[in-house]
Fold:
Amino acid sequence: MITDSHCHLASHRFADQDISSIISRAKSAGVHRMVTLATSLGDIPQNLEIAKNAGISAAIGIHPCDVHHAADDVMEKLSAFVSDPRVCAIGETGLDYYHPAPDGWSELDFRAKQRDLLAQHFELAARSGLNVVIHTRDREGSQSFDDSLYIYRKYSDRVRAVFHCFISSWDLAEQVLTEGGLVSFGGVTTFKNSHLVKDTVSRCPAGSFMLETDSPYLAPEPMRGKQNEPAYTSTIAEFIAKLRGESLAELASHTERAADRFFRWKSDFIE
Structure:
């Protein structure tokens, strides 16, 4: 049994009527738990509705590409959901320096807003006893990662963070692990030209990372280019286990322990 620690089941790319089939296919593939992540206040209700299904939990947050829509009281509104037993983490939050600033925003102001809201997500997590799911993306270099890590370090004695969809070097991953955080690996790990992340996943100690799909995006080989879904976590797991020289059972065992320790699961999730 394995967990898809990061998917977006409320995405408009998934038809509402298909969700039950998507969940069923995942469970048939051995993916017994899924975390569906909100990226704005508007899609929290749909994620929580999906999380009524057995084996599904939700994380709540404001994606960095959506911060320009966030009102001054957005964190107050977000905090109203943290006591819901379906909520297992804060996120998806983070910093995105890849996409251009929206109309009416300078690059500097947009990035400053992202950093401010990331810190507020950590504050909410610290008050709520939850951990944080972080997105970083750059056009070049690692500035969004560096800035996110700088903010994380201020809270790492109270909150753990996972840097999701990790595709960077072992040197950067090691910095996260040193702070007590985690990384998670998805379909990009299986791509033929992804030499850097293959090296990273091979070096990560057991228990320091989780598995994810980030579906409906970034389907693994050989489904690359198609719509991703949680069932493909099993494909990613098989690839990573072989890469690390582990059995699938060994990989599942330590990635499940990592997920158990990171997320606030409902009691019936821990088996």
Remarks:
- Strands lie at 2-7, 31-37, 56-60, 87-97, 132-138, 161-163, 182-185, 209-211.
- The longest helix spans residues 107-128.
